[in-house]
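Lab meeting prep.
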Amino acid sequence: MSNNLPDIIRDFARVPADIVKQAAEFQPAILADVAGRRGAMHGRIKPLHPRMKLAGTAITVEVRPGDNLMIHAAIALAKPGDVLVVDGKGDQTSALMGTIMMTACRQLGIAGVVLDGAARDSLEIDEMDYPVFSVGTNPNGPTKNVGGRIGHPVCVGGVTVYPGDFVIGDADGVVVVEREKIEALLPLASKKVKDEAARIAAIKTGDTAAKWLTAALRSAGVLQEGESL
């Protein structure tokens, strides 16, 4: 059935803007934890500068390594608040995007870019303070000759991303949460933030012991029953 789908899927459901705004208040690490410690892309995908942050809904793009034709098409189709999520096959032999394309993205209200591939013009992009996450940089430019797909599921940094999913990134990396699940995770994320703040406050008063540790060591067979550290 999927073979009958067009290469470009223009319309798909997105996370509502108010939910994106609420979810963007949390660290990606918090959302990954409450999502079952999953959804985090491979650490090879990093921000061009640690201060960069992004949050929005995924518009997914699949390209052939070193060719950015479909990224140009995706920019033309993207809506404000979208994040370009590009399956570039992890290729680092040439850049898929640079200053000109990033400037267009910012002008159009695209919330950021995630590339499983390389970028270039990194210093200029840093000066723009536009959030770009990639596997690295390369000064080589791309070709614009090969077709690909937009709006289909892609695998980026080892994570399957569907169009419309929630995407968030900071200095730690990028986390993706399924569109259908993100709203239900918000109360859990809020509770985790409060619980962690309380634990940090307790540690600062001298309560440094991890109370779960002994039981976990026994369960793992490191300690025998009745033993302790």
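Slide two material, second protein:
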Amino acid sequence: MEGHNFSPRIVIVVSNDSFIYEALVDNINCKIELVDTGFKDYINSLGKVDVLIVDKLLSGHEIPIFRVDILINCTKNKLSQNEIYFAKPFKLTDLIDTIERNQDGKNLFCSINKDWVYSHQLGRLSSAEKSIFLTDKENALFQKLLCIDGHLAEKDYLRHEVWNYHQDTESNTVETHLYKLKQKLPSGLLEIKNSGCFLSIDNLK
């Protein structure tokens, strides 16, 4: 039942020169872009960035951090609490190894519309204004609904996939968690029907 195709993983290099970009193009198997100016608007237009490499003096407010899964900072300015810092001079092989280690595909990181970005690893939906943190079960439910074709699932399917319950076991468990999840999520995102539920998503990247 699972089969949604997410957008390709993408690495963005923010720099005044193309040295790092050219080294990565030859050694990393994913989409790579070099951006000098207008990078904030560009990142917003992409919806999400899997790896952002900053090799240009910036301040943290110049970057939509919530849209970035992994931030690699090659400058002396601290940009985020969760950044990976590379002091110059560094070996490009170390940078490539770091990207590859963090690009294993185990973390689902995607934009679910123009405002919200989801990280399965963090159990979090984030926008420019706020973050919503999910419990383990809520996170598992949300991921299942994101990944399933059409973002539509029967409650019995969710009960089996998330709790490994049989059809006649604790029938109210899924309903309880779904209603709590709906209360947390942005308005209109999760719709619950008698036998199933779906995420109302127009633009998933």
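Talking points for slide two:
The first strand starts at residue 10 and ends at 15.
The longest helix spans residues 172-184.
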